[in-house]
Each structure stands twice: as structure tokens, then as C-alpha cells.
Automatic annotation (TrEMBL):
Role of this protein: Lignin degradation and detoxification of lignin-derived products.
Entry's Gene Ontology BP terms: lignin catabolic process
Pfam families recorded: Cu-oxidase, Cu-oxidase_2, Cu-oxidase_3
Catalytic class of the enzyme: oxidoreductase
Cofactor: Cu cation
Name of the protein in question: Laccase
Amino acid sequence: MKPKMGLISGVLGFIFLSALLFGKAHGAVHSYYWVVKETKFTKLCTTSTVLTVNDSFPGPEIHAQKGDTVFVTVQNDGPYGITIHWHGVRMPRNPWSDGPEYITQCPIKSGGNFTQEIDLSTEEGTLWWHAHSDWSRATVHGAIKVSPANGTSYPFDEPDGDQTIVFSSWYKANVMDVLDESISTGDDPNVSDAYTINGEPGDLYDCSNETMYSLLVEKGKTYLLRILNSILNEEMFFAIANHSMTVVGSDGAYVKPFSSDYLFITPGQTMDVLVTANNSASYYYMVLTPFLDTDSSYDNTTSRALIKYSGNYTTPTSIPTPTFPNISDSISAQLFVVRLKSLADSAHPISVPKNITRQIFMTVSVNLFACPNSTGCTVDGNNKLAASLNNNSFVSPSTALLQEYYDNNYNVSLIADELPNKPPTPFNYSTVANMSTYTKEGTQVITFEYGDEVEIVFQGTKIGATQNHPMHLHGYSFYLVGTGSGDFDNGTDPSRFNLDDPPEVNTIAVPRLGWSAIRFKAHNPGVWFMHCHFERHTTWGMATAVIVKNGDTNETSMRPPPSYMPPCS
Ligand SMILES: *[C@@H]1O[C@H](CO)[C@@H](O)[C@H](O)[C@H]1NC(C)=O
Ligand SMILES: *[C@@H]1O[C@H](CO)[C@@H](O)[C@H](O)[C@H]1NC(C)=O
Ligand SMILES: *[C@@H]1O[C@H](CO)[C@@H](O)[C@H](O)[C@H]1NC(C)=O
Ligand SMILES: *[C@@H]1O[C@H](CO)[C@@H](O)[C@H](O)[C@H]1NC(C)=O
Ligand SMILES: *[C@@H]1O[C@H](CO)[C@@H](O)[C@H](O)[C@H]1NC(C)=O
Ligand SMILES: *[C@@H]1O[C@H](CO)[C@@H](O)[C@H](O)[C@H]1NC(C)=O
Ligand SMILES: *[C@@H]1O[C@H](CO)[C@@H](O)[C@H](O)[C@H]1NC(C)=O
Ligand SMILES: *[C@@H]1O[C@H](CO)[C@@H](O)[C@H](O)[C@H]1NC(C)=O
Ligand SMILES: *[C@@H]1O[C@H](CO)[C@@H](O)[C@H](O)[C@H]1NC(C)=O
Ligand SMILES: *[C@@H]1O[C@H](CO)[C@@H](O)[C@H](O)[C@H]1NC(C)=O
Ligand SMILES: *[C@@H]1O[C@H](CO)[C@@H](O)[C@H](O)[C@H]1NC(C)=O
Ligand SMILES: *[C@@H]1O[C@H](CO)[C@@H](O)[C@H](O)[C@H]1NC(C)=O
Ligand SMILES: [Cu+2]
């Protein structure tokens, strides 16, 4: 009993201290205690040992209301160091609890623990948490459900039911072995063996019939599906047979409702969707299948789950299944993306930066490095795969960048080089294939002044394997003001930007050989990771860190670190 009491009073003391120091008077406070450990599951006729939180896959949900504070103590009883990230939570002034390994903290060692403070502010809807070290995100992730604050309500009729739907990747092998093998050969990692819906592959896979996920519905009722995509390396299409979906939110912000027969959802994104059980009482398939516009290898399997109406009826002999865009239908993917628009009404105001003080044009590429061994690698002779932003492949530091920044009195130049604002060599990005595939590498960051109004245009290139990339920024949500195919034209494209009701999101699809433009105001000081949400691309260096300097007052500055951060040595 003793250690537990010690832990609880420790956490309460921490909460009290935070409340005292940072005046977080509004919002309720919740505490969770999680144990990270290895758990055995039998799926696809094979027993695998995977890392979990509290033996559950997907992991436990966090339930909170807008403006609440959540403390999570993670006890690491697994064999590897691990970190946990709160995806889409902006963590005002508190990068210390954000979680990406070697950016804001070192991993929580095997046997260690760490209490993180998750500060919800304006987020409302569905967000999620996941491991942010190596590829342990595969099985260590779960939903964060943020309900409206007391005295407020959804911008739509209160749904009759609420259900989280989590998409994940399943490997029969240990995912750490998959990662290590790909690092040692320099080649593409093995693809997953299945996609899962709420942890289950569904009846198209071996040995998976009995365990398929099913959602029980009552005729006439409307359900809020809180859908999140934690798949490692593929963007997805999702549809429900004979039921249309009304998209009402994405990435923890509401959108203007629109109805669609399919969703396009990238790793990192969430979609809040209303579904009304308005068809004949029966079974209907919900289907999850990949969108892929690349020649690299991918998992081309399909996961299914069921919607089952309650009541007395004969089980159908043939269950309706939805139709889908073709697997490589980038037009349907893009048509879905441009339908997302923020509510932008008086109860949900937006503020799109219009006086841009920092403009960044950033190429996103898959590249090569010469193999560090004379014969060790298997790509194009003796090369290994790499990836870059503005021709720099991010090298992860071995200590936490945030701590170094703080310890060096916020002097960025002492800890990292600056990533260029634009590609070092301009070229016709989406059409020129004969640029060198090789890239530079280094720990390069982007530094913003407090209050900068930032525009970043991400530009896909024809270098290496071409593909749509889901780019994600920590510490912020941002407005997706424009997206298109080919090379971004700085003369004509900005005039078509949507500055009236762009969606406020944290992860965007940058089209293959196309571009996406985002804007945000840099008013959250700290060190924040920015990266492709395909796990293999982040591993290869498609990443950087965004450092936002402190403002002039304490209220516009980073908080000091908590008394305990996981040690780096
Ligand atoms: C909101 O209401 C719930 C239920 O009555 C209560 O537990 C919670 O503390 C309230 N939150 C705030 C911030 O007052
Ligand atoms: C996780 O497991 C720990 C240890 O058994 C327990 O104290 C805690 O309540 C569990 N948390 C959840 C969210 O299940
Ligand atoms: C958590 O880690 C701290 C620092 O190492 C240690 O003092 C504390 O006892 C640990 N708590 C638990 C429950 O293991
Ligand atoms: C990756 O796939 C290859 C070919 O199927 C197989 O031989 C190898 O064992 C796999 N690697 C891992 C780590 O499972
Ligand atoms: C290089 O060689 C060593 C020793 O054979 C091996 O462990 C390593 O995985 C190889 N590959 C790379 C990319 O370093
Ligand atoms: C799984 O169920 C489907 C129908 O739902 C059936 O066609 C198939 O034969 C079943 N497979 C196994 C292995 O039981
Ligand atoms: C389901 O949709 C299919 C294809 O549109 C249609 O043929 C079928 O009649 C529908 N079934 C029900 C029960 O609505
Ligand atoms: C998936 O890819 C494999 C290998 O290219 C191919 O044999 C198989 O038919 C594909 N399956 C589907 C469902 O497309
Ligand atoms: C379900 O319907 C069948 C056929 O109409 C009837 O025999 C049976 O009693 C019903 N069961 C229930 C639980 O209502
Ligand atoms: C735009 O930003 C510049 C540079 O920070 C500033 O001098 C100017 O006052 C701003 N203009 C408006 C309209 O806010
Ligand atoms: C637009 O692009 C041209 C050609 O690349 C470049 O010379 C010019 O500086 C750019 N203008 C702005 C505002 O970025
Ligand atoms: C600002 O924060 C520092 C460090 O936490 C503290 O020493 C100082 O008193 C604070 N200043 C004000 C005006 O609150
Ligand atoms: Cu990518």
C-alpha cells in the first residue's frame, strides 16, 4: 500500500502546486495511472507479444471536458524506454509534457515513471494519445474524448450514443524487430499483416471471424462516431454500407456538417461523424481500406466491422458492403479534404493570420543516403532510404532538445542549426525527376519569434518515391488555407486561399506531387516536433522541430520544467 499512497499524494501535491503557480482555476482535474507492459494477444492465428497500456489494445480512453486538466502517471513496466504524446492537445506554455522522444524529453526508462499534465484549452471533440518513441505507437494509443464544457452543448443535436472507432496496424512480428530490420538493411520496413477496427481485424483475415468488432444500434437513433487513425504507414478510406456519414468535427474542432459516403483519413487525424440508424434492421459492414498513390510496398488488406441493429430479425445471408473510391483515387481523397471547413460562427470564432511575418516554403521528399557500411544496405546498390524537409534529413538528438534549449538560456544557436526557409536549390518540384536523390542530414530546427504570423507551404517533390504525406505539428492547431496539385504558384495560388472558414486541424495530407498551405500564429512558446505521421518517414528524417521563443512576460513564456523529467543518461 505504501508506494501507492506515496504516488497519489505526490501527484496531488503536483496538481496543487500547478494550480497555485499557474492559476488554472477553471476546468475539472482528472488523474489516471497507466502501466505500460507487454501483453500477449492471439490474432491472425498467431500469438504476438505487444506493448500496451494496462493490457488493452487499443489503450484506455481519456474522458474530459473542454478546459479540463488531466494528469497521467505512466509507469513503464515494459522492456524499452517509452514516451507518450497527447496528439492535438496544444499544451499552452507546457511543452514539458508533450512527449516526443528526444524533442521534449528522454524516454521513460524501463522501471521508471513520469507524470504528465495535459492542459486542454480550446480543443473540443476527439483527440488521441500515443507512444512517441520508436514504433511503439503501433499498439500504445487511445482516444481522448473532449466533451463540451458545462453549460454549453454540441453545435448539433445531442447524439443518442457515442462510440470511439480506432484504426490501428497489426503485425504478427514484434514491431521493434520490424523497425530494427529495416534500419539495418536501409530498406522499406515489412508492411503490417492487418488493419484493425477497435483492435479487431475482421472477417476477411484468418482466424478473425469470431472477434470482429460490432456496433449495436437502435433503429431511428443517431450516433456520434469518434474515429481516429493510428495506422503506422498508410492513409485510409472508410465507409459504412447503406448509411451516409455526416462529418461534424476533425482534430478536436468542429466543422460545417457535410454528408459523405466515405471518409479519407490520414494517420494522425480524427473525424467526428454522425450516423443515423435509418435503414432496415439488419447487419451492415463498416469497411476500412487503404488509399495509396505510391509504388512503395504497403499493406493492401481490408478490415471490416459490423453495424448490427437491435431487434428481432433474421441474420442476413449476405451482408451489404459499401462501395469505395479506387485504392489510388487521389481525386476522391482530395475532394474529401476540401470539404472540411470550420464553423467560423460567433460561438466558434476563428482567427486566420492575415499579416504573415514568416513565410516558409518546404519541400517534402523521400531520399537516399550512401550506406554507412561497405555492403550493408539493399536499396539501389548499397544505399539506404532517407527522407527530408528542405533537403535536410532530421537527426534526432540523444538528449532532449527542449531541456537543452532551457539549459542554454533559450539560445537556439547553441543547440541546433536553422533549417532553411526555402529549398536550397529551387527546381520544378513536381516534374523534375533528375535531381539528386541524396540529401543532407542534421539536427535543424525552425525558430519563430513569439507572435509571428506563420505561413508554411509544404511542396511534394518528384525525388525518390512519391506519395501523399500526412504532416503534423505539435503544440498548435493550424488553418489549412489551400491545397492543390503540381507546383505551388506564389503568384496565383494565394489569391485562392480560403481565409474565411478554413478547417483548424493538426495533421494535413500533402498531395503527391502537390502542395498544402497552412497558417498559424506562433503564440505557444516551446520546442515542438513537426513531422510526417507515416512512422517510416519520421524514422528516415522527414521531420524538424519548431522553436517558438518566449514573449516578454511570464504569461507569454514557457513554464519552467516540472521537478522531475525522465533522465537522459
Ligand atoms: C461540470 O459538471 C460535472 C457534473 O456535474 C462536474 O463533475 C464537473 O466538476 C463540472 N466541471 C466544472 C469545470 O465545473
Ligand atoms: C491501470 O492499471 C493500474 C494498475 O493495475 C490501475 O491502478 C489503474 O487504475 C489502471 N488504469 C486504467 C485506466 O485502467
Ligand atoms: C516514480 O519515479 C520517482 C523518481 O524516480 C520515484 O521517486 C518514485 O518512487 C516512482 N514512483 C513509482 C510509483 O514507481
Ligand atoms: C520481414 O519479411 C520477410 C519476408 O517475408 C521475412 O523473411 C522477415 O522475417 C520479416 N521480418 C520480420 C522482422 O518479421
Ligand atoms: C552495418 O554493419 C553492421 C555490422 O555488420 C550491422 O550491424 C548494421 O546493421 C549494418 N547496417 C547499417 C545501415 O549500419
Ligand atoms: C468468416 O465469415 C464469412 C462470412 O461472414 C465466411 O464466408 C467465411 O467462410 C468465414 N471464415 C472462416 C475462416 O470461418
Ligand atoms: C444497400 O446499398 C446497395 C447498393 O447501393 C443497394 O443495392 C441495396 O439495396 C441497399 N440495401 C439496403 C438494405 O438499403
Ligand atoms: C496485395 O498485394 C499482393 C502482392 O502484390 C497481391 O498478391 C495481392 O493480390 C494484393 N491483394 C489485394 C487484395 O489487392
Ligand atoms: C422473433 O420473431 C419470431 C418470428 O416472428 C418469433 O417467433 C419470436 O418469438 C420473436 N422473438 C422475440 C424475442 O420477440
Ligand atoms: C503586420 O506585421 C508587421 C510586422 O510585424 C507590423 O509592423 C504591422 O503593424 C502589422 N500590420 C497589421 C495590419 O497588423
Ligand atoms: C515567388 O517565387 C519567385 C520564383 O521562385 C521568387 O523569385 C519570389 O521571391 C517569390 N515571391 C514570394 C513572395 O515568395
Ligand atoms: C516569472 O517567472 C519567474 C520564474 O518562474 C519568477 O521567478 C518570476 O517571479 C515571475 N515574474 C512574475 C512577474 O510573475
Ligand atoms: Cu511521409
